[in-house]
Amino acid sequence: MSTNLLGLNREELARYLEGLGEKPFRSRQLMRWIHHFGEADFGRMTDLAKSLRALLEEHAVVEVPRLISEQRSEDGTCKWLLELSPGNAIETVFIPEDGRGTLCISSQVGCALACTFCSTGRQGFNRNLSTAEIVGQVWWANQALGHDPKGERVISNVVLMGMGEPLLNYEAVVKALDIFLDDFGYGLSRRRVTLSTSGVLPALDRLRERAPVALAVSLHAPNDALRNELVPINQKYPIAELMAACRRYLERAPRDFVTFEYVLLDGVNDTEAHAQELVRCVAEVPCKFNLIPFNPFPNSGYRRSRPEAVRRFRDILMQAGFVATVRKTRGDDIDAACGQLAGQVVDKSRRQQRFETPSA
Ligand code: SAH
Ligand code: SF4
User: How far is Cα 153 from Cα 155, in angstroms, rounded to an integer?
Assistant: First the structure.
């Protein structure tokens, strides 16, 4: 079977080339062709020796996900539905903002963690993405968006906040991070790549050592009783342990704060008392808050908090000295908002990986 070079980090690519009897440093040239120029055809990599091109054509491929559909929202948000293999589709969303462009990518088809307010969680887990499939999303978006008039890359930030729990697909995700951060890959700084997790703690400690990028943690509740219900993995890794792990992470992180994400659910976690408890709950962790208005989906059983409740909640956090932003809902008209991704993906409802920690 041909090796897909899209999913190899520099070290792996160098070893692969050595295995073909080639010079390992050719990996840099090859990565530039694949990731900078978006070239998938070895025949067109003109500064590689003809003999190398022939070898690669025989043994390797650059295989990218297949585009099923593209939608562009009135506010500039773009959404691509990509087919990975028959019956397995994922979504990738681009969100332009003043001075930056953020690409939100997926790490799994579905998710085993079953947070009650998340439509991906309701679908159950189907499968992990390979490194090539994770990187393929950035490759696609780069091709589709191109460069801006000043020649700058349109994608300045990547967030792992699409479908799936990235820390339950640890090995594939860290290798994708290598490629995002590599100057011969996408050349993003650690500060501009954010991993969002609901708190798979052993893997978070490993990430701190292996590839510390900016961190967002899905908190959603200020106490264990409520978080156990909303984010069931809390039953395994409760809040006190989560906070301790965040502090350890910050010793190596490229930013000096954690972003806590908090979906506001009407009457469930959005009262003044919840906000005050939240202030006490995070007291030991340098952090900012990203308050997310709940994005409804059929039969969710939840409602978005009322605007006054959102304001009050944010004001209590701000009065306590925290930076707290309310996420603007973007791409509503194309169902690209958080938790609405890939509503059409077949429901596999396989939860056998529930609460499993990564084995590798
Ligand atoms: N599994 C990871 C990353 C993917 S979820 C995590 O949970 O952090 C990305 C973010 O979207 C999380 O903060 C998640 O809680 C939020 N989210 C999920 N469903 C949502 C919904 N229906 N409305 C708003 N945000 C939602
Ligand atoms: Fe999985 Fe994140 Fe959704 Fe929870 S919020 S079910 S961890 S994708």
Answer: 5
CATH class given for the domain over 3-61: mainly alpha
Provide CATH 3.20.20.70 ranges for the chain: 66-356
pTM of the full structure:
0.92
- State which of 105, 118, 351 you would mutate to test the pocket of ligand 2, scoring each by most atoms of that ligand within 8 A of its C-beta: 118
Query: Is ligand 1 within 6 A of the CB of residue 335?
Result: no
200 is written with which tokens?
């798979």
Annotated catalytic residue 97:
no
- Give 66-356's CATH code, choosing from 3.10.20.30, 3.40.190.10, 3.20.20.70, 3.90.10.10: 3.20.20.70
Query: Other C-beta atoms within 10 Å of 116: how many?
Result: 16
Which pLDDT tens digit goes with each residue over 202-233? 999 999 999 999 999 999 999 999 999 999 99
Rounded distance from Cα 198 to ligand 2 centre (Å): 7
β pairing state of 100-104 and 88-97: antiparallel
Q: Which atom of ligand 1 is nearest to the CA of 165?
A: 1
